[in-house]
Each structure stands twice: as C-alpha cells, then as structure tokens.
Amino acid sequence: MDSFKDKLAVVTGGGSGMGRELTVQLAREGCAVAACDLNEDNVEETARLARAAAPAGVEVSAHVCDVADEAQVVRFRDEVLGRHAADHVDVLFNNAGIGGGGSFVNDRRETWERTFAVDWWGVYHCTRVFLPLILESTEGLLVNTSSVNGFWASLGPGMPNTAYSTAKFAVKGFSEALIEDFRVNAPHVKVAVVMPGHIGTDIVMNSRRALGEPDPEAMSDEELEAWRPALARVGATVDASTDDLRHLLTKVGEDFRNNAPLGAAEAAGIILDALRAGEWRILVGEDAEAIDRWVRRDPGRAYDLPGATRRAGDG
User: Quick check: helix, strand or coil at residue 248?
Assistant: First the structure.
C-alpha cells in the first residue's frame, strides 16, 4: 500500500502505545481511522490527538470494545460503518494485546486464558468480523501484531511467558497461513505480521486493568504479598516492605515504558514505512532483529541461555 491517504483504517488497542501512535500518524497522512480500546478515556484522548493532527475533513472515531468478545467486535464493526458512512474497510490493524499468565504451572487459569483470549482470539474475532469489509476494498490490508515472543517463547532465564507467547505464535502462524489463502482467493488483499521487541508502552499497567487487577495503590497487603515471588524473579529485594512492593509494582510498569530502547511513535513509524514498502514480515527494533538472527542461527539452542535452568530431558 503506497499511501494510506483517503483510506479507512481500523486500529484495535488504540488507547495508548503503538495503537495510539498508529492512529495519530495514519490520521496525519489523511487516513480516516476508527480506533477501539477497553479504556474509553484513553481512546477518546487518542481520537482527540489524531483529529488535531489530521487534515480538515478526516474522520477519526473512538470506540470501546473488548476484542476477546466477538459480540462486542460485531457491535464495533457496526459502529464503524455508521460513523464513517462506509461500505468497506481498507486496513485492519490487529494491535490490541496484554501480558499475563506467564506460568502455565503456577498462574491462575483465569489469568492465562484471559491473556490468550485478548492476544489470539481478539485477532481471530476482528479478522473474522472485518474481513468481508476488507474484501470489498480495492486494495485491502490486514496487519497483525505478533511479537518477538511469537518466535522466541521466553522473557529470559527464570521468566516464563507462556500465555502471551502461545498467542503470539498463533498470530504469526495465522498471518503466514493467510499469505497463500489471500493469494489464491483474494489477491487484492495482503497480510503483514509485525514483530516488535521492547517498545515503550503502557502494556504492563494496561494488562493489570484488563486482568481485573487493582492499581498498586489500591492493593491490600495480602495482594501485594502475592506479587513478591514475581518481583524477586526480576531482581527486586525479597525482604521489601509492603509499601516498597507497592512502589516497585508501579515502577515496573513505568520503567518498562520509559526505559525501552524504542518509543511507540518510532515503532509506529517503522511499521507504516514497512507497509508502504510492501513488506509482510516486519521486525520492530534492534532487539527484535538481534533475537531473530540468534534464533534462526541455531534454533535447537534458542533456549540455552546463560543462567537458564536445565532439567532432565533437556539433553
């Protein structure tokens, strides 16, 4: 897609991070955008920023939608068609995602399944619901956000990441499978898979809200204590007071955003530039490129990291 001008794009997870930046940058280019998010205040702020950046007459709409719920996605689609007076959609960015359910062994089943539902079923539901409208475009594009954890299923030694990684592997496989499907059955539609590394977003804090977890400031001492083992695994002081734990939980999310090697605006720019160039496999960030090279060089040893725990049967 050489240009997004005069197109209609749908962006999920548009309330913050890459979703917000994609919405703003698309609107600035003259693309109408319908952005959705779980958080109404956040997505309304995104729409305000995008309208301020857009040329006159470019429509930007904000919607509340849990992409894990197909009925809400159907409602979102109907709202988009009504708000934009449209009979087709040109681009769908399946960008919404949360973290959680790191351990299949120890984490709550509800947390694991909620994370998987947003990260995989959200992509599936949105693609299933919006694809008929993309097929009506003369030049349709489906953009699915996977992750480096879609080809390397770990956060490093001592930090399993099973729900997120499983979902992101599914997103990558689904996207690649659609290449031939579209080529045969809908040659005017293209698909791209985006695999970011560490991007400066609010995913840590947003994930807590999406999983129904209270803000650290509102956590009881018992709820804070439940976080002690996880914080210890990432180097936090194990004998910290509950007040210190509360501060640490807040700081983890802020540090993830503020200390990332690549900001959300830069990441969105890389994605849009790659799409204009016709790329379908989009690595975002030097860390993503490095991990990709490392895994491809010796896949059989991709998880043999310094300090990683080896168990019987690992060889």
Answer: helix
